[in-house]
Write a structure and sequence with these properties.
The chain has about 325 residues and is of the alpha/beta class. About 55% of the residues lie in helices and about 10% in strands.
């Protein structure tokens, strides 16, 4: 026969489960309402819509009633994504996405892309920069051509698009640009010279732009993360024992596409200037880089001596 204490414990477990489920349900409902209020009827462009994060953003914003412009390198995959979105939603409450081929590494095509973007709906309310090319290798093994490719894709392409749509936003005195950036735009770790340089450059560009366009009612937000986790990866991150690998390990410290998409939605609502989505070690490293630079550099150098780099990550 169960004692009163035992009976209380038995009843407590399902009660906690029900309360937890209720909290998650309430959170989902609030998030859905937030998405409708934030992006309803807004023209939202998502670069690299075919990535894991791009797809999650497309789903979330489409359900919220946004007028989506989905960009990517593969037209057939864009069409497939658009069809999935339309089949999974109420067509009386959502808008069919507009599709555009976009490759930031081909900077010469950007003027035509800008023209097509503004012609799609006549304006642009939200621009989400979600794309990058990653390279990981010793600096002496990287060619100048590869350095330029990384800078085109991660810096020159995005800023060309930003500059192209900026006059329209200024004339309307409205708009929101959101940069999804790596935490390596805040600190640099070894064997990522080209990648970190491009991420520092794009971070600095948007930090400057934020101050310049504030008087026009335009919001600029940067959301920095460690890694966006994917369900499966064709290039799994190898295990290393180096000190600085703790800053960039994907398996244990990455952000899921769902988490990041939800954070982007909240950022659009709050218009927060900067968000850091990283574990405590990475956040501590950012402060150490500013407050204790010599200590930080020593840790990085020690990490190089104890770690072996992977050649490339594209």
């Amino acid at each position: 026969m169960l004692s009163k204490t035992g009976m209380s414990t038995v009843l407590l477990v399902p009660a906690v489960a029900v309360i937890t489920a209720g909290i998650f349900y309430l959170y989902g409902a609030i998030l859905q309402l937030l998405s409708k209020a934030t992006v309803r009827n807004k023209v939202v462009l998502i670069t690299d819509s075919l990535s894991a994060l791009g797809k999650e953003c497309a789903k979330l914003f489409h359900r919220g009633g946004a007028r989506l412009i989905l960009c990517g390198k593969n037209w057939e995959k864009l069409e497939s994504l658009s069809e999935q979105l339309m089949n999974g939603s109420d067509r009386t409450l959502t808008f069919p996405p507009k599709l555009m081929e976009l490759d930031f590494s081909d900077v010469e095509t950007m003027p035509d892309v800008v023209s097509d973007v503004l012609d799609a709906y006549g304006c642009l309310d939200v621009l989400i920069f979600n794309s990058s090319v990653k390279v990981k290798a010793p600096v002496q093994s990287l060619s100048l051509e590869l350095d330029k490719t990384v800078m085109d894709a991660n810096y020159f392409g995005p800023i060309t698009l930003a500059k192209g749509v900026l006059p329209s936003m200024i004339s309307r005195r409205a708009g929101h640009m959101v940069l999804v950036n790596s935490i390596q735009g805040k600190l640099a770790v070894p064997f990522r010279t080209s990648y970190a340089a491009s991420k520092h450059a794009i971070q600095a560009f948007f930090d400057c732009l934020r101050a310049e366009v504030q008087e026009y009612g335009i919001s600029i937000s940067t959301v920095s993360h460690t890694f966006i986790k994917a369900t499966t990866s064709p290039h799994p991150t190898p295990k290393t024992n180096s000190i600085w690998s703790a800053f960039t390990r994907q398996k244990h410290h990455g952000i899921s596409p769902e988490e990041m998409a939800s954070e982007l939605l909240k950022t659009l609502s709050s218009k927060k200037s900067e968000v850091i989505m990283a574990h405590s070690v990475s956040k501590a490293a950012i402060y150490a880089r500013s407050l204790l630079p010599n200590f930080f550099f020593s840790v990085m150098a020690a990490g190089v001596r104890s770690g072996t780099p992977t050649k490339y990550e594209h």
